[in-house]
User: What shape does this take?
Amino acid sequence: MQVLRLLPLVLASLALASQTPLTAPDAERVVDVSKEPWTSKYGSQEDLGYSGPLSFSHMPYSRCLDDANARFDIAILGFPFDTTVSYRPGARFGPYGIRSGSRRQRPDGWTLAWGQSPTELGASLIDCGDVPLSAYDNLKALDQMEAAYTTLLGRPVASAAKATRITSRSASLALDGVPHPAIVTLGGDHTITLPILRSLSKFYGKVSVIHFDSHFDTGKSGNETGKYERITHGSYFTVAYEEGHMTNRSVHGGIRQKMRDHLQLRHDEDVGFEVISAEDIDDYGLDNVVSAIRARVGDTPVYLTLDIDVIDPAFAPATGTPEAGGWSVREMKRILRGLTGLNFVGADLVEVAPAYDNADVTSIAAADLVHDFLAMIQMEAPPPKHNGPFLMKGKAEL
Ligand SMILES: [Mn+2]
Assistant: This one.
């Protein structure tokens, strides 16, 4: 008890001590890090796979909306939003989960499948953090997402227009003829794609959407519903099409949801989509699926959006509306490689809800797919097949 009575006195004297200014000579002391015990003996304070602040793949991190000096060609951006879901909530933790799943990745990670790493391809990469979104007012949150996305799209790029594929493509497609950064957004429930399309159309006009998902997401928005209810993670594409942000050359891949009736297909076509089902990969083969997607979007500006529920729940259980019978992660990765060289102006990965995960499998798969996005949107053409050890036999070097 005696000690407790003395505690306020001790705390007060500690506070006083911490307010005492450093003496001038110490404040001006020049520090040579290289001669200090840590650096001289062990080198730099490097992040390990399981340590460091949580940025995507240990990229440089900045709160870009606040930081006018942040310069980048490709930005990772988190939209922690999940208040328009129809089944299990939790995707507001998606950006955290995907970053967490990326801890063993680095942006210079080189793979046999790509024969490249995202950093080798030249674009300047940054993680711009998460946007603080209203969890109570969906219309406000949609406006916040559009404002944030438009802010970053309007920022000057880091590289000269002709220096990288990503900046030269952006300059050639943009309505103002100037290169704009590419943003890879981590969702969030799928409604986040609506404010993104609203923003992109200001810079590029109408875009075609490549949409990987087990669900159509082209539900009728319905005039009979209220202003909040009409925009959900199952209807946002209808709203985006009606508002004029999309071409009629979009395509779904991996669809397998149960429909109310076949008329849903007609409405899907009316809002600009062609359907590739989950089973088409067996009936037509993976290469034909890739060719069909490429032919569909052609040379239009392309936005890629991937709902993690396109992947079979065996590989990615942590999502809001799981559907059995999906593609494997390896199949999805192969399709993404096949799409390299299209006119990508941005991409997102959505609907990761880490609370339903087991041993981080969904987060790790999602982070790996985002790593693939970073190569896919930069390279000129798909990497050659079998760019692996079998072809290297008998070769002195790559
Ligand atoms: Mn879905």
